[in-house]
Amino acid sequence: MCHNPLSMSPVQSREKAPEVGTLPADESDAMREAQRSVLVVDDDKAMREMVMALLEDAGLRAESAEDARQAAERLRDQEFDAVLSDVRMPGRSGIEMLGEIRDIRPGVPIILMTAFGSIDSAVEAMQAGAFDYITKPFKRDALLVTLERAFERRLLEEENRRLRKAVDRTASFGALIGASPSMHEIFAMMRKVADNRSSVLITGESGTGKELVARTLHFSGIRSGHPFVPINCTALPEGLMESELFGHVRGAFTGAVNSKRGLFEEADGGTLFLDEIGDMSFGLQSKLLRVLQEREIRPVGGNRSKQINVRVIAATNRDLRQHIEDGRFRRDLFYRLNVIPIVIPPLRDRKEDIPLLAEAFVRKHSDGNAFMLTPPAIEKLCACPWEGNARELENVIERAVALAEGEQLGPDDLPVFSKESSEAGEVSVAALIGEALEQNLTLGELEERYTLHVLERTRGNKARAAKILGINRRTLYRRGFADNKNDI
User: Fold this and answer.
1) Considering the chain, what is the average pLDDT of its residues?
2) 183-198 average pLDDT score
């Protein structure tokens, strides 16, 4: 379960559409438990009373207004979950009233109703900002289903609005985002050492954002006005890496036709970020150790040292202590780098951060469009193991935004994650095989038991079970798994 940092209750994916004429509620969500309220606006008293009675019979709270002026007064006094308004009224029409309602209560969905339905007026209503349009005479069930969609849309917008506020407010430090206790500890540490010159060693799995932590640390401290210079220690062979770091003098080696400043000099006054420090050659580690000890560098081929003022931040996804035991990393260099250790946990261990990161990535890649993650989509994201951490999450969100056909990003807009695909049988496959061996089951019998196991774990959802099994849903029916009870 994904623990939302906004204290929002868990959201669940609805596998069945609501029954016509009912307004189902998710008991786990306080917002859904509250009685929904609708403001009915119509100059026809008989119509107002009929619609209000219909809504109250369905368990909704209904109030009325006879024109646009009275509706505005009601909306200023209290909140409503939806407004149901006639189009043709004395004074301002329902369409003319839309702008004022949006100013008073920006998030409330407005459904227009009229006995003079036409394509032109429907288009005009939608362009003016109406949520939907229904023509008189309308069926009770059609109205209630339209209202339910409006309630769901408002709830979704409210949850996304709260999520955006959390991203913008307290769950961040510079460009970093996180609501988990571990990220708050990292933020606190970074605030303490931002102005320090001591070396920092950032450790964490690939994709956890080690360079982003390094950049944020640099640009939040007193060195922010000076260069931040990154280099990947796996990108160049040892000989070229030495020249890149320390520079070289003219004629130092074949091809050195001019003297060149190294990255330590380029970063003077600022920060040098050594990414993947665990892959640095043992020989170069000795030279780096000397630089950290003496605070001076000597270019390749040179005979004079130069004083430098550089803060070194290193990062690795390796276990440097194990590298030390294996003789691949210098113990003394490790202690020089590890003055201030920052450990970034993998994303799977801080699921509270997933909704915030996902929302931030949606905003980053949406190009100004109002994409919204639905609660079931967030739940699906929280269930993913994220072996590639935040980098993988961003790639998934970027792809979903690029391929989305509407404003809402639901679970179907997200890929079937590899861990999710195997979750139904990962724990008990060994038990199933052991049972098959003990009972001398045939391959067909084992296959049938595993299929039943997957169907049980997916609660009878054949579409999802078929994806996990890697077969077509029709194959399940052909194999006799077609009890209509739980078909979806």
Assistant:
1) 78
2) 91
Q: Which of 315, 344, 373 is the last residue of a domain?
A: 344
HSE, side-chain direction, 13 A CA sphere, residue 53: 6
Q: Which single residue is written with the structure tokens 């052991």?
A: 434
* Residue owning tokens 């207004």: 65
**Given phi > 0 = left and psi -120 to 50 = alpha, else beta, which region is 43?**
alpha
386 within 8 A of 357, measured Cβ to Cβ: no
387 occurs within a structural domain:
no
The pTM is what?
0.58
| pLDDT tier at 417, thresholds 50, 70, 90 | low
What band does 424 get if pLDDT is binned at 50, 70 and 90? Answer: very low
Q: What angle do CA 100, 103, 108 make, to 5 degrees?
A: 95
Structure tokens at 77: 């006094």
Whether 129 and 203 share a structural domain: no
Question: Considering the domain boundaries, does residue 390 fall inside one?
Answer: no
Number of folded domains in the chain?
3
Partner residues linked to 37 by β-bridges:
61
Q: How many degrees, rounded to 5, is the angle at CA 454 between CA 453 and CA 457?
A: 90
- Find the domain containing 472 and state its range: 421-478
- Of 88, 344, 342, the closest CA to residue 209 belongs to 344
* Same domain assignment for residues 446 and 310: no
3-class DSSP state of 399 = helix
Is 154 a member of any domain? no
pLDDT in tens, 55-103: 888 888 888 888 878 888 888 888 888 888 887 787 777 777 777 787 8
Q: Are residues 191 and 111 in the same domain?
A: no
